[in-house]
Design goal:
Helix content: 55-70%
Radius of gyration: 24 Å
Structural class: mainly alpha
Number of helices: 6
Order of helices and strands: HHHHHH
Largest sheet: none
Oligomer: single chain
Distance between the termini: 58 Å
């Protein structure tokens, strides 16, 4: 928005302003991530990737496997909560259903299972 409001269209100037306004730490990151021939759009993309939060899959799966059925929570509600938690566990490459069944069987409060 700043570039539009300022009437700045030149990509080299956009890149220079981005780095100047970002400060010395951003400039340092840029130097380590950048190829000198990169365009403003490529620099933006590289910085977006650099600053994107990283997911710790092991930690997310550990959180999933430590979920327990709450008192007065139905098996159906527990399974739904497990399925929601599974979204952050990187189970997209295989069926998550066995993981949910394992967790329901081992962590539910019912003696009838």
């Amino acid at each position: 928005m700043f570039f539009i409001a300022s009437g700045i269209n030149d990509t080299k100037r956009k890149e220079a302003l981005l780095l100047y306004l970002g400060g010395k730490e951003l400039q340092k990151i840029h130097r380590t991530q950048n190829d000198a021939s990169d365009t403003y759009e490529k620099v933006k993309e590289l910085l977006d990737v650099y600053f994107k939060p990283q997911v710790n899959w092991t930690f997310e799966r550990n959180k999933f496997y430590n979920l327990h059925q709450l008192e007065n929570e139905t098996i159906s509600a527990f399974a739904t909560r497990l399925r929601d938690a599974l979204c952050t566990c990187d189970y997209e490459h295989y069926s998550p259903d066995p993981a949910i069944v394992d967790n329901v069987v081992s962590k539910c409060l019912s003696n009838r299972l």
